């Protein structure tokens, strides 16, 4: 995929912009340069967020069915308040003793399987995956990494080299092998685990010792594959048989989003060696982490120290702790489970009337919906783009994903309700009606 | 240097801790694992910060002469207020149009030489240096990197592999060469530039095309080398002659700290190809950036897109903009210049009376002070440690640096005044008197 082919990327000139929008686009080009991308044919100029709503400069409200960072709702007062209080009290680092980071670590580890006994803090999911790689390389004395064909794990040099979804302009490392995502339509669990075993053999054949299989446990950039739960067990066994570790990238599915569990890997009944997390962790505050088996932390810590200036700072800890408190107090995991079912049921009902819609996948409030050509019933990226942009004009925000860019990615803040889902469905119905 | 040999690292058992401190240390070990390090023989348990002061759990005030992150003062109300307001209004990313990140970019680029025309936002200095490497590799089709012998550029896999100060447990990359830091005592500018040219030749001799020379322009981890201004010009010319780029790592000296200029490279009259920045940028909020020549951004952006979920988010932009406003409104650069001179004069006066003190180096409020064995006048890491820990007991915070861990690193918030410097000097005098 070329950089330009990023699903739902703004292409200058494709739509008429207001003077304000055009000036902002021009300023971005001039100041930030060409590596930045905007969403939508007509980019959205946001000024305010609240709950599941984003507001543009004209005061128009947009139903946010896309942003998983503001997971407990845009500008949730409990989190914003915790950030404001701590930023006015102390904002320093982990080379002093401070209770906040320890309270957070304790609470996070309580959500993990007993085998996962330590947690290390970073600022971004990229940094967490990058640290996981460093630790895996050290622990296995290997460098081979296995990822899915359209995986995304971040933007540092090391993790960009194992993120094929960044496109052909960002070469994969010579030590990286890709396996097809576990699409139930093409083999499911047996096929996936076999592909992992074969990739590990291929690495070994090239003199590269396998270090890790890393997967986003909801396979977001591959197209959202959630079922049947359990298919990761055999894959984790396959990488371990080859001497490597199993790393669960929970940046997308973590923190209750799947409804069925706090973490995506739990749905599969597998215990990872390391677990990375990020995006929703601070509801917008830059905080991320890597939870791991203590023996792996020992192996790494005996050789290397780890200090991340902002990682686990007092404000980051307060933000992340507040998010965990809200998830529990508002019972958002169970809420995501129920609303997600209602939402998918509604999407399937629409699908029975509109042949553009194909399979509905997902768990909780992470939903993938295939868009197909209504005649040939084959993947239809252009159709997906028309729906995404049609919804944007109808003031509903989603995006598209998958190697063929034909999967609608629906991933609202967890405070999304049945009523919000119904509103989404009615606007989607209108958009589909106009597309014919 | 082994991990344990980190200057000023806490070693369990070396001092008697209070019950509270001991419990916190135990919780850290149990939750965060062994890669984390604390400062001081008796770690500091901080609970609050204000201006140049940190307060411990008993309410004792510590004069902070070390933390450059809280550069405009701990919990500066203008910055904390901007963070609180924006966190309650909107905290979203750069794939929507938003004025904040553009206002910040404009203001930052206005402080740069005209050749530096774009800026890209990350969350940490590590990520900024990692991105600089990715761009340098792409632009030069090379991978060779030259750093100083005790350089520190961050903790991602790519930049840890070019950070020798992390110790022998973190191997340097096969594509990395080190050059002695430009210690005026051992050659200064001519020696440094020659070493860069030789390292580039050695890379080429090994079939590795030179991509970049990257230096912290105040050479913090090497021991703080600031004089004579201008010595970087020949080094930048040497790497460019070899086909590589010159990257100024401004994470430590940037944002007015050197007093003489906004950026450390400016003191040297050199224009870098890329400029990374971080720590003080958000006064504790995780925000960092890479400013660069537009043609380099074009070369990268034509192949790769760059998206950092939290990088340049609306709150990060508000925090960084507020920091720039405070630096200007409180004239902190000029203040750092004057207080730094007063401070270094005082340190030199003390040095004339205490043979443990050697050369005083630095610019503005970034000061390196050699500690020597009073008899042999050779580098004395143990003496430096006794001073650092003696000051901590006298409630003054600094640390040590340099490959021989004998350089006192004095780097207070920029709001440090002459009176604070005098207080520091009087407490240092007491500590030196007890050491004999």
Describe the structure.
Two copies of one chain form a homodimer. The first copy, chain A, has 436 residues and is of the alpha/beta class. The first copy, chain A, has two domains: 3-72 and 331-435, Alpha-Beta Complex (Aspartate Aminotransferase, domain 1); 77-329, Type I PLP-dependent aspartate aminotransferase-like (Major domain) (Aspartate Aminotransferase, domain 2), CATH 3.40.640.10. Chain A is built from 13 helices and 15 strands. In chain A, the strands form three sheets. Chain A has a seven-stranded mixed β-sheet, with helices on both faces. In chain A, α7 (232-241) links the parallel β7 and β8 (245-249). The longest helix of chain A is centred in the C-terminal third of the chain and has 22 residues, at 332-353. Chain A is globular and about 60 Å long. The two termini of chain A are 29 Å apart. The mean pLDDT of chain A is 96. At the A-B interface, α1, β1, α2, α3 and β4 of A face α1, β1, α2, α3 and β4 of B.
């Amino acid at each position: 995929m070329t950089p330009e082919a990023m699903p739902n990327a703004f292409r200058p000139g494709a739509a008429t912009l207001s003077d304000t929008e055009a000036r902002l686009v021009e300023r971005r080009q001039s100041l930030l340069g060409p590596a930045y991308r905007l969403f939508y044919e007509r980019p959205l100029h946001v000024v305010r967020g609240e709950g599941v709503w984003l507001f543009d400069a004209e005061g128009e409200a947009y139903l946010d069915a896309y942003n998983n960072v503001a997971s407990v709702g845009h500008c949730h007062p409990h989190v914003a308040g915790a950030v404001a209080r701590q930023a006015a009290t102390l904002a320093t680092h982990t080379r002093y003793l401070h209770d906040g980071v320890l309270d957070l670590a304790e609470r996070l580890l309580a959500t993990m399987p007993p085998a996962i006994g330590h947690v290390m803090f970073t600022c971004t999911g990229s940094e967490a995956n990058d640290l996981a790689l460093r630790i895996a390389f050290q622990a296995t004395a290997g460098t081979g990494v296995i990822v899915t064909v359209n995986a995304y794990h971040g933007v540092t040099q090391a993790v960009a080299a194992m993120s094929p979804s960044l496109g052909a302009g960002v070469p994969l490392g010579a030590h990286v092998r890709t396996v097809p995502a576990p699409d139930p339509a093409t083999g499911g669990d047996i096929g996936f685990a076999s592909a992992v075993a074969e990739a590990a053999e291929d690495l070994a054949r090239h003199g590269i010792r396998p270090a890790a299989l890393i997967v986003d446990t909801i396979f977001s950039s591959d197209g959202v594959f959630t079922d049947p739960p359990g298919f990761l067990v055999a894959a984790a066994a396959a990488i371990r048989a080859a001497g490597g570790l199993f790393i669960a990238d929970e940046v997308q599915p973590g923190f209750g989003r799947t409804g069925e569990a706090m973490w995506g890997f739990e749905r599969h009944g597998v215990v990872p060696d390391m677990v990375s997390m990020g995006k929703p962790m601070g509801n917008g505050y830059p905080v991320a982490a890597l939870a791991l088996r203590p023996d792996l932390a020992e192996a790494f810590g005996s050789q290397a120290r780890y200090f991340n200036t902002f990682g686990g700072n007092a404000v980051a800890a307060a933000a992340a702790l507040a998010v965990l408190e809200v998830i529990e107090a508002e019972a958002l995991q169970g809420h995501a489970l129920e609303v997600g079912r209602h939402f998918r049921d509604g999407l399937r009902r629409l699908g029975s009337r509109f042949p553009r819609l194909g399979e509905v996948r997902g768990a909780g409030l992470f939903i993938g919906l295939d868009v197909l050509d209504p005649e040939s019933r084959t993947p239809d990226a252009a159709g997906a783009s028309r729906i995404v942009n049609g919804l944007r004009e109808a003031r509903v925000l989603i995006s598209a994903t998958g190697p063929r860019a034909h999967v609608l990615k629906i991933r609202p803040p967890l405070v999304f309700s049945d009523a919000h889902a119904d509103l989404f469905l009615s606007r989607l119905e209108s958009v589909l009606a106009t597309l014919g």
